Inverse folding.
């Protein structure tokens, strides 16, 4: 297989994990042809990055733990922050636009607010729940992107639905991510989901990232939007002057919201 660099190996490990949810060091060692000691180091590093959980003799996806605990728990996590971020996001939307929403719980929160608003929109989404949330609105046309339904979630992934994007002009895309950093832009866990998200980003005129404070300055496995493709960030995170300036230098506007703690 030739010499593999650590990042490639780790990406391979994550790909295998995404496929199987659980892996043992023995299997990895056989399949990647690397010593168990090296793999232990890899797994420790990936665990530190929050990407997997070490088990006796191997690892499992933290994402899998999450998807076991499922979307509804994730939805409940940081609920106030997500609501505050979604409320702010509404201010970017104007009547008659075509907007895109990813399958994140923050975008779903945004859809819930839109469902009660008197507004005319076309909404393109990769989120099944998001589509259903807006389905009853008399003045919102909903387009659900096709794709493979991801287990344990309400999102679509893969490139089956990408062609539809060539036929629609999208003004704004609202997306969350597992991580955002100046090096990697917006990143996510699943290489398959990223494929669709990349196409969504490319099809959009403007990209607005909805990021609660746990996502800032954090990297995940695969990037789906580079720094120059992001126009705005809405977050509840603490923003240092230095960070704000760095974002300004790359033409990203940042809006900070404060969750109401009632």
């Amino acid at each position: 297989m030739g010499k593999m660099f650590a990042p490639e190996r780790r990406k391979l490990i994550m790909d295998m994990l995404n496929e199987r949810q659980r892996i043992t060091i023995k299997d990895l060692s056989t399949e990647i042809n690397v010593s168990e000691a090296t793999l232990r180091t890899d797994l420790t590093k990936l665990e530190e990055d929050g990407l997997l959980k070490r088990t006796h003799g191997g690892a499992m996806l933290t994402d899998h733990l999450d998807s076991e605990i499922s979307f509804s728990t994730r939805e409940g996590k940081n609920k106030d922050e997500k609501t505050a971020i979604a409320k702010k996001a509404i201010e970017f939307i104007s009547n008659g636009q075509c907007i895109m929403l990813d399958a994140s719980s923050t975008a779903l929160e945004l859809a819930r607010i839109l469902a009660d608003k008197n507004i005319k929109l076309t909404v393109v989404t990769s989120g099944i729940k998001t589509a259903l949330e807006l389905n009853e609105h008399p003045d919102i046309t909903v387009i659900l992107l096709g794709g493979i339904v991801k287990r344990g979630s309400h999102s679509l992934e893969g490139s089956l639905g990408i062609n539809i994007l060539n036929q629609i002009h999208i003004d704004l895309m609202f997306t969350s991510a597992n991580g955002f950093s100046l090096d990697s832009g917006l990143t996510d866990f699943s290489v398959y989901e990223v494929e669709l998200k990349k196409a969504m980003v490319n099809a959009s005129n403007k990209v607005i990232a909805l990021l609660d404070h746990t996502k800032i300055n954090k990297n995940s496995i695969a990037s789906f939007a580079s720094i120059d493709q992001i126009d705005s960030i809405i977050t509840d995170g603490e923003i240092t002057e230095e960070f704000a300036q760095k974002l300004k230098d790359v033409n990203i506007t940042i809006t900070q919201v404060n969750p109401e703690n009632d």
Remarks:
- The chain has a mean pLDDT of 88.
- DSSP finds nine helices and 15 strands in the chain.
- The two ends are 57 Å apart (CA to CA).
